[in-house]
Amino acid sequence: MKSQGRPQVGVGVIFVRDGQVFLAKRHGAHGEDTWASAGGHLENGETLEECARREAMEELGVTVGDLRFLCLSNIIAYGKHYVDIEFLGDIAGQEPVLKEPDAFIASGWFPLEGPPEPLFLAMGYALDSYKTGQMYYSGD
User: pLDDT digits over 45-74, tens only?
Assistant: First the structure.
């Protein structure tokens, strides 16, 4: 693994509606060609919730209402080390739209019980947390 100094902090938010989860296929970043949701780096001075809302707006053009904490993960993958925090976000009837064509190449609503593969590791943990209530993934 390439040294990056200290682990970085990633924040993600997933959207679930009617037994389906919104996913977008990552492009041009670590975890390329995996399925994920909105997320990114925590900025200096930003709360976790602010980060989740900002990333959702920047990447998918949606305004997130209520947020519920899902899980915390220690992820060492894709040649990087992240502490990742995932939330479940409420976007009511809004429809996500890919706002960063360099970051995502496809998207849609997929069944919770049969999402496309491969999932971005943080997304896999978030979905598992949503289904089971588990809140911590050690990265083992």
Answer: 999 999 999 999 999 999 999 999 999 999
Statement: residue 1 has pLDDT above 50: no
- In whole angstroms, what is the distance from residue 24 CA to residue 33 CA? 9
139 Cβ neighbours under 8 A, 6+ residues apart: 73, 74, 75, 76
What single DSSP character describes residue 33? T
User: Which pLDDT band, with edges at 50, 70 and 90, does 4 fall under?
Assistant: low
Provide the H-helix boundaries in the chain: 48-60, 121-132
Rounded Cα distance, 107 and 44, in Å: 30
CATH architecture, domain defined by 8-95+104-137: Alpha-Beta Complex (3.90)
Tokens 């925090």 sit at which residue? Answer: 85
- Domain locations in the chain as residue ranges: 8-95+104-137
State if pTM tops 0.90: yes
Whether 37 contacts 116, CB under 8 Å:
no
